[in-house]
Write a structure and sequence with these properties.
This protein has a single domain (5-300), classed as Glutamine Phosphoribosylpyrophosphate, subunit 1, domain 1 (4-Layer Sandwich). It has 9 helices and 12 strands. The chain has helices spanning 20-41, 47-60, 105-115, 123-133, 140-143, 146-156, 222-226, 230-242, 244-259; strands at 5-13, 80-87, 93-100, 120-122, 169-174, 180-186, 207-210, 214-220, 263-268, 274-279, 282-289, 295-300. The chain has an 8-stranded mixed sheet with strand order 4-3-2-6-5-1-11-12. A hairpin with a 5-residue loop joins strand 5 and strand 6. It is an enzyme of class 3 (hydrolase). Pfam families: Asparaginase_2 (PF01112). It comes from Enhygromyxa salina.
């Protein structure tokens, strides 16, 4: 029987100095909650899905991150969130994009995967689906924070850079059956045009999970990751013999070299091997394994190696 693990990230980019400690604490907490859910469910099918949801819901509720509560504002001062989920056992996926004022986008993405015939729903259609299913917590008061408002005003007035800010949260869970789930959620990029969608809800680019390849999540500037179909490319390289850590490092370095964009990946192989790399100022992450103390940090670029 496989030993379970949960690997999470809190976004590749630039974290404000006053959020460093909160980012480390938040990712560690999320990984611990995800692993606790894995242990609770034992060898139940789709335990990996439940664990990934538990981890990402914790991150979405944490205002230190750009997802759910504390998400970035658009150029119009609104909130539009995205999320994507995929499980390895049957490669089923679900995603939502450009959904207004949604605090738990990961739950709605899961509903698309499990309760619809589709893989991606957007905007008002996604909200109507949520209402029909009784899923999702909507309301500006659930996603607005003073931090988000302040950053929006500073960026709008040109007082701070909007490039390469830390974004996106995500979790990969491997359960005792050896099944994997990859799940990402994001508030997008600060001052984005209304309707802009990045890599997070796009299968193959922002997330991917497959029984033979493993699972991966992307973070950073979505447009740069989308152009390389980043998560699928990482797993394809790892399976070809490069190794999952080396594949993550190579891809980060190539994308950053070609675009200058902040970028990061986390990945888990079907054998439980893990990889994490980024080319950005910061990236917070945590890893929780059964029987092992949780590890995690906010690392400084360009591409630190992941501990086993």
């Amino acid at each position: 029987m496989t030993a379970g693990l949960v690997l999470v990230h809190g976004g590749a980019g630039t974290n404000a100095a006053d959020l460093h400690e909160a980012a480390v604490a938040g990712t560690r907490r999320a990984a611990s909650l995800g692993l606790g859910r894995l242990i609770e469910l034992g060898d139940r099918e789709d335990a990996c899905v439940e664990a990934a949801i538990a981890a990402v819901r914790s991150l979405e509720d944490d205002p230190a991150f750009n997802a759910g509560r504390g998400a970035c504002m658009t150029s119009l001062g609104q909130f539009e969130v995205d999320a994507g989920i995929m499980r390895s056992r049957d490669r089923q996926s679900g995603a939502v994009a450009s959904v207004h004022e949604l605090a738990d986008a990961c739950e709605l993405a899961r509903a698309v995967m499990e309760r619809s015939k589709h893989a991606l729903l957007v905007g008002d259609g996604a909200r109507r689906f949520a209402e029909a299913c009784g899923v999702g917590r909507f309301g500006r008061e659930l996603v607005w924070t003073e931090k988000a408002e302040q950053r929006y005003e500073q960026a709008r007035l040109g007082q701070t850079s909007i490039d390469n800010r830390a974004d996106t949260v995500g979790a990969i869970a491997l359960d005792r059956r050896g099944q994997l789930c990859a799940l990402g959620s994001t508030g997008g990029v600060l001052l984005k045009l209304p309707g802009r969608v990045g890599d997070t809800p796009l299968i193959g680019a922002g997330f991917y999970a497959d029984a033979t390849l493993g699972a991966a999540l992307g973070t950073g500037v979505g447009e740069a990751i989308m152009g390389r179909v980043g998560c699928y490319e990482l797993l394809r390289r790892a399976a070809a013999g490069v190794g999952i850590q080396a594949a993550a490092e190579q891809l980060c370095q190539e994308i950053h070299r070609d675009t200058g964009a902040a970028v990061g990946f986390i990945a888990v192989g079907p054998d439980g091997s893990v990889g994490m790399a980024h080319c950005s100022a910061h990236m917070s992450w945590a890893l929780a394994r059964e029987g092992v103390e949780v590890v995690g940090a906010l690392t400084v670029g360009p591409a630190p190696s992941m501990p086993g």
